[in-house]
Design a protein that fits this description.
The protein has 2 domains: 6-183, no CATH class; 190-411, no CATH class. It is 22% helix and 30% strand. The protein has helices at residues 9-18, 61-69, 135-138, 214-221, 232-236, 279-291, 309-316, 336-339, 341-346, 375-389, 396-403; strands at residues 6-7, 33-34, 38-51, 80-81, 86-97, 100-116, 122-128, 139-140, 143-144, 170-176, 178-179, 182-183, 198-206, 226-229, 248-256, 259-268, 294-298, 327-332, 360-365, 408-411.
Length: 416
């Protein structure tokens, strides 16, 4: 993202009160983050996680902490932590659990949080010490007696309402937000989206459990685009040899004075747990990340599974290698900032960009969107059209507010 006008601590407070943009002079080292309804901050604390593994425990700590932190998501109101947290002072030692050898890792964690501007800025959270041990104790007759999902135990979990022991099974923590300076005015890097006069956009829709035709909505709201629905044979050129039942693809095109937007819209089942049904989506997601400048997704988050690039690669036995150039990713799904930003940014890591954020901006919704739709691809398509035609190179302050509702969040590179 481009840096220009930066929001200081005082301005974060003013924005919290008035929910309007307050401009300030540039401050080096601020975070390119923009949301009219959120303030950027961080929380940090010391904790521990227990786990068993046949691999080297040093290789497993981060994944187990990531699973552990999911237990705080539903206690933070409309505030969302980011998944690319930092771990330090990690100390691992062998331990025992019910006579079995396990590992006990003590650590210090620091994570950024997109906090609702209306507060609160402190939370009481309950984190289990040994998440992998919970299922045998809290799932009875197929029901989670400490939450609302018998597989993903963190979903709306309530440890005080079930027979788990504080201090033994979990710990109550009081965490508080430290506000961070952040960019108020940031902008898509439009010039870097275009490749030989073409901007390629992929809009991927998970229509499982939604009685909603996303593609027809795009046809309706993009009347000045030509469009062609692909045959099954054409769809199979990107997703060969997989189940294509229920899958639809439409290619939209728009031209202006020799320049073009190509929007490839996919609609199908993207639930990772639907192993065969979701394969076409996986191939289209891979194709989009490797070839397109703008990639958007709308649909169920699958409680952290559906866009988990590592799990998709394991399931499909292929690698996803996003293009090296600058990209914008938009995700409209529950807790996307926590579940998925890390998986996307880690794919862009280079020696010059150790966080992987320099060449990827990510737009997410606040904690839980009411209903996924076409908002993000439609907004980005329209602002790119306005840039191509010379109307205006809209910044993210206009993208969110003029083209998107105010409960969206833009996150990007801390180093720019």
């Amino acid at each position: 993202m481009k840096k220009s006008i930066i929001l200081t601590y005082v301005h974060v407070i003013l924005k919290t009160i008035f929910l309007v943009p307050i401009y300030a002079f540039a401050i080096e080292g601020a975070n390119p983050f923009y949301s009219p309804m959120h303030a950027l901050g961080s929380v940090e604390f010391d904790y521990r996680v227990q786990f068993s593994t046949t691999d080297s425990p040093e290789n497993e700590v981060r994944d187990h902490v990531s699973e552990q932190m999911k237990y705080m998501l539903y206690t933070m109101n409309n505030s969302t932590p980011y998944g690319n947290f930092e771990l330090s002072n990690v100390q691992i030692r062998p331990s025992l659990y019910k006579g079995q050898k396990i590992w006990d890792a003590r650590y210090h964690i620091k994570m950024k949080v997109a906090a609702s501007s209306s507060g609160p800025f402190s939370w009481k959270v309950y984190l289990p010490f040994y998440p992998d041990s919970l299922s045998s104790r809290i799932v009875r007759d197929g029901q989670n007696i400490c939450g609302e999902d018998a597989v993903n135990l963190f979903y709306k979990w309530r440890p005080l309402d079930c027979p788990l022991e504080p201090g033994v099974d979990f710990q109550e923590l009081n965490i508080s937000l430290t506000l961070l300076p952040s960019n108020l005015y940031t902008s898509p890097e439009y010039n870097r989206l275009e490749d030989n006069g073409v901007v390629r956009i992929a809009a991927l829709f998970n229509n499982f459990d939604f009685d909603f035709d996303f593609l027809q909505q795009l046809v309706t709201y993009l009347p000045n685009f030509e469009h062609k629905e692909w045959s099954k044979a054409e769809i199979a050129t990107i997703a060969p040899g997989v189940d294509l039942s229920g899958v639809r693809v439409i290619m939209f095109t728009w031209q202006h004075k020799g320049r073009k937007i190509e929007l490839l819209a996919f609609q199908g089942d993207a639930m990772l747990t639907h192993v065969e049904k979701s394969r076409a989506f996986h191939y289209y997601l891979k194709h989009a990340l490797e070839n397109f400048s703008v990639i958007t997704y709308a649909g169920h988050a699958g409680l952290g599974h559906n866009l988990n690039l590592r799990k998709i690669e394991l399931s499909e036995k292929f690698k996803i290698n996003p293009k090296k150039e600058y990209q914008i990713v938009g995700i409209e799904a529950c807790f996307a900032a926590y579940y998925y930003t890390n998986f996307f940014w880690e794919k862009k890591i280079t020696a010059a960009d150790p966080r992987g954020t320099k060449d990827m901006d990510i737009i997410t919704h606040e904690a839980q969107p009411a209903m996924p739709g076409i908002s993000i691809p439609l907004a980005l398509t329209r602002v790119i059209q306005d840039w191509i035609t010379g109307i205006y190179p809209w910044g993210y302050t206009e993208v969110i507010g003029k083209f998107l509702p105010p409960n969206y969040i833009v996150s990007g590179d801390e180093d720019n």
